[in-house]
Write a structure and sequence with these properties.
Strand order of the largest sheet: 5-4-3-6-7-8-9
Bound molecules: S-adenosyl-L-homocysteine
Number of helices: 6
Oligomer: single chain
CATH class: Alpha Beta
Number of domains: 1
CATH architecture: 3-Layer(aba) Sandwich
Largest sheet: 7 strands, mixed
Distance between the termini: 60 Å
Radius of gyration: 19 Å
Helix content: 25-40%
Shape: globular
């Protein structure tokens, strides 16, 4: 009887190891094919994408699809972005140790976790209370001590914590919210999808240099809408 129990424990332990290995394998393959394979080369971005366990940021029933080359639903009509887009938006702001970054659209907390692997502090704002609460709990459980989550309309930014080295907006706005431009440091970068809800959106890179603001259209994308209120 005793040896049977030991065998069963050994079996379950090895099964759970196989499971976590299975996700590690899937994650490494995702980074190789979907991210490096499409030209992302920033070392810190690649390392962060390898570290963050994306399967812990999606609904239980979608765990097996967490490393697929597409966005996934996270409830409340919202989505976690496609891995490549997360990596693209991360690389473009040139995140480094010592920096402070603001994200608008916490969603699952995945993009915030990727940024938190690299920079010193991440401030992230989510307008849907339930998503904000669950992301905050998830990030806490995963021990991301350098992420602050706020439930509010991100249009106004996070004045008390400004200015930011970079701002990452993960919902599509029809125009760039002026308070966000204001809260960008001199020399800072903001990446934001701009366009009409669900169609004709572009990722736009905004740069502030000597108080001059420039903007550049990068790639066509499709994000959930930036909503207002709260
Ligand atoms: N970055 C997320 C994906 C976000 S989807 C992740 O990694 O999972 C976009 C999110 O932006 C949604 O959760 C949506 O509720 C939120 N959002 C939309 N408008 C917003 C606003 N004005 N302020 C804050 N969050 C907003």
């Amino acid at each position: 009887m005793k040896s049977l129990i030991i065998i069963l424990i050994a079996l379950f332990t090895s099964l759970s190891l196989v499971q976590s290995d299975e996700f590690r394998y899937k994650r490494e393959r995702m980074v190789r094919h979907q991210i490096e394979g499409r030209g992302i080369s920033d070392e810190s971005t690649l390392k962060a994408m390898k570290n963050v366990q994306r399967h812990l940021f999606v609904p239980e029933e979608l765990k097996q699809n967490a490393y697929d080359d597409r966005p996934l639903p996270i409830g409340y009509g919202q989505t976690i972005s496609q891995p490549y887009i997360v990596a693209y938006m991360t690389e473009i702001i040139l995140p480094r140790k010592g920096q402070k970054v603001l994200e608008i659209g916490t969603g699952s907390g995945y993009q915030a976790a990727v940024l938190a692997e690299i920079v010193d502090t991440v401030y992230t704002i989510e307008i849907i209370t339930e998503l904000s609460n669950s992301a905050e709990q998830r990030l806490k459980k995963l021990n991301y001590k350098n992420v602050y989550v706020k439930n509010a309309d991100g249009y106004y930014g996070w004045k008390e914590a400004a200015p930011f080295d970079a701002i990452v907006v993960t919902a599509a706005a029809e125009f760039v919210p002026p308070p966000l431009v204001e809260q960008l440091k001199d020399g800072g970068k903001m990446i934001i999808p701009v366009g009409s809800p669900f169609l004709n959106q572009n990722l736009v890179l905004i740069e502030k240099k000597k108080n001059k603001v420039t903007s550049k259209n990068l790639i066509p994308v499709r994000f959930v809408p930036f909503t207002r209120g709260k």
